[in-house]
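Supplementary Methods. Inverse-folding protocol.

Structures were first reduced to a discrete structure-token string of length 206. This string, shown here, constituted the complete conditioning input.
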């Protein structure tokens, strides 16, 4: 598969079809057991742990189903953990503002709803200005209305920052947001769909 810069891709498929494994290989979390995985001039297949760590730190943002926030820190402080390590980060305030949480900067995790916590996780992922944003079931633990708010944040990052975005989901309607949809089965790409028009997150009904 080839992924174009700035593209929004959705990965669909049953549990066990290989979606998360593919995402982890693209993100430098797992090594491919066969074939070649390459990002620009980075050969991820032959890279050692140090090289993969540098690749993840400099180029990739991750958003998972569970938010992995530190409860004793505020939203601003959770995002600042990443900006302290990045070479050219946006400020925590700017990152949180981009996902609609500019008025929740100093709230602790326990004071935030599930959707707000996920948006903090997105802000943390994008604060280092990654080239690639990888999202594994970012709405899996949320109700539909809250999930749409989270998807609007992901969509805004893709549209406004030009961040290449790949999202795993079990919710087929979310596929309408993507430029392309890749359906996986038994560890292979079984079907590719190109959307003539991307739907905005606010247009989704699921």
């Amino acid at each position: 598969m080839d992924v174009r810069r700035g593209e929004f891709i959705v990965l669909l498929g049953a549990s066990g079809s290989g979606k998360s494994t593919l995402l982890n290989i693209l993100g430098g979390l797992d090594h491919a057991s066969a074939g070649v995985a390459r990002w620009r001039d980075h050969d991820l297949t032959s890279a050692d742990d140090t090289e993969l760590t540098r690749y993840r730190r400099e180029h990739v943002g991750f958003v998972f189903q569970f938010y992995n926030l530190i409860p004793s820190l505020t939203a601003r402080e959770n995002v600042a953990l990443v900006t302290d390590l990045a070479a050219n980060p946006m400020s925590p305030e700017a990152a949180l503002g981009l996902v609609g949480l500019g008025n929740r900067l100093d709230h602790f995790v326990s004071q935030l709803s599930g959707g707000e916590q996920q948006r903090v996780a997105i802000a943390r992922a994008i604060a280092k200005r990654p080239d690639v944003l990888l999202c594994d079931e970012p709405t899996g633990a949320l109700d539909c209305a809250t999930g749409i708010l989270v998807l609007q944040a992901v969509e805004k990052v893709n549209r406004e920052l030009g961040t290449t975005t790949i999202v795993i989901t079990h919710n087929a309607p979310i596929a309408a947001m993507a430029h392309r949809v890749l359906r996986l089965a038994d560890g292979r790409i079984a079907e590719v769909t190109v959307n003539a028009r991307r739907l905005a997150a606010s247009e989704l009904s699921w």
